[in-house]
Amino acid sequence: MIIGGIDIIGLIAILMSASTPVLLAATGELVAEKSGVLNLGVEGMMIMGAVAGFAAAVATGNPVLGFLGGAIAGALMATLFAVITQIFLSNQVASGLALTLFGLGLSALIGKGYEGVRPPPTAKIDFGPLSDIPVLGRIVFSHDWMVYLSLLLVVVVWIVLRYTRVGLVLRAVGESHDAAHALGYRVVAVRFAALAFGGALAGLGGAYLSLVRVPQWTEGMTAGAGWIALAIVVFASWRPWRVLLGAYMFGGITALQLQLQAAGYAIPVHILSMAPYVITIVVLVILSAIHRHGVQAAPASLGKSFHASS
Question: Potential cystine with 226: which of 42, 59, 135, 172 (Cβ 3.0-4.6 Å)?
Answer without folding.
Answer: 42
